[in-house]
């Protein structure tokens, strides 16, 4: 079955047409600046090593999706004869709240239930739903499946997901930890278990490190804790997000600087993290260049980033009663060898040792980074969220 994977943002649309059984990607790309001047689409056919850029107005996601469909059925550079070859459409859905603990076939009733969680993800859920409705309009009759970022973390016990607030805030407002990047954490932890030989019992820590970063503790394939919370703001220091912070500090800064709620939210989400400390960029690569040049604020930012990751590893190892494997994924996790080495360095007390020579060589695919005498496996595992979405879509549509 050919599955079209769609990930709609407020002004973007990522897509892949793939076979979830063989993992073959027929076409993929990105539509950017939807509804904004300078709209453009990237279209790539991996098998032909073919890639083009199309600059064309896209007032709405409808025009963007029309461009995608036209590209994949194009007589010269397309990958299918007609849209009828698309068996189903899988959608990345950010927030399923407590309603959705697994992927689901989308219909009006389900989408209304998703809309009820819009307050928990006001920027993402409406955009995701817009993508679903657009696909239903342009490809009527095709099954659409929603795959939720929050679903994998729904196995967390109450002791891990509850906040120590008045209980009615949970009962009435559903204020609790939900977690995000669930499809990535699922893929990486499942891949690690396969590498380990699918043992009955396993304790895995996943470090999904990118501009947005999160960690998870996975016991026997089930998530028992994760770093992000009610929103993606909690947890690790990130590119522009502050991560864990004393809530009173938020009120203190807001009042002292006379900021509105929106301005304070923007400060925490878009002006903090690596950007806030380093000051020159939110990009980890720029920060590392700054470190190499001796920039004191770049050094501080990197040290804070690494310290927080190590702290979560220690906490999760304690919570799980040990750890069998630590996995790195995401743009930083997969490419920043120096950060990986610094994170593992000092964890010898818990049995984790990294092979510095292997770690320093850039290799594609899954790479074992730990030494032979390391009691804890350390791996780099490139994540594949699109494959998770496609597989779930196939399973639901095919009744597997």
Automatic annotation (TrEMBL):
Its cofactor is Mg(2+); Mn(2+). It catalyses: acetate + ATP = acetyl phosphate + ADP. Its main location: cytoplasm. CDD domains: ASKHA_NBD_AcK_PK (cd24010). PANTHER family: ACETATE KINASE, ACETATE KINASE-RELATED. Homodimer. Belongs to the acetokinase family. This is Acetate kinase.
